[in-house]
Amino acid sequence: MRRAFVAVLAGALAVGGAPAQGPETAARLYDVTIETGMPNLDEHLRYATLRERRCLDRGDLGGAFPALADVSLEDCRLVPVEQDGEGARYALRCSGGHGTEGEARWRFDEAGLAGTLRVRLGGKNMTFYQRVTARAAGACPAEAAR
């Protein structure tokens, strides 16, 4: 069961798309590193890392974590709680009644963005995190910015 979850979650790493452009900020191109850690698993299954180049909008980072595309979190979304020029905080809200909880925290600086999603799956003593580190790489290509 755990190996199946790991396989599905690792597959979800490649699914993430660019969040919609918010009215306050424009999307920018970033070199993104996504690390997923599952401390409850055996050492060789515990971590997964993905690197990609992707457009992100600092005003809307609720969709920046690929783990949210996993079937086990299909009824969950990140809801903004607070945001300022230095960072943002989102709460994980799930509608399925299964007790999954979590939050995401972001830090902003001139070089880029860094955010961590922490999740405790309901009904299980299983936790995981997903960390997104994004270094600015320029403007988004015209077709990605639309």
Q: Which class best fits the helix and strand makeup?
A: mainly beta
Strand residue percentage: over 45%
Low-confidence stretches: 1-24
Within the largest sheet, what's the order of strands?
Answer: 2-1-7-6-5-4-3
CA radius of gyration is: 15 Å
Whole-number average pLDDT? 80
How many strands appear in the DSSP assignment? Answer: 7
Quick one: CATH class? Mainly Beta
Shape: globular
Share of helix, binned: 10-25%
- Overall domain count: 1
With helices defined by DSSP (H or I, 4 residues minimum), what is the helix count?
A: 2
Largest sheet: 7 strands, antiparallel
CATH architecture: Beta Barrel
Q: Please give the alpha-carbon distance between the first and last residues.
A: 40 Å
Order of helices and strands: HEEEEEEEH
CATH topology: Lipocalin
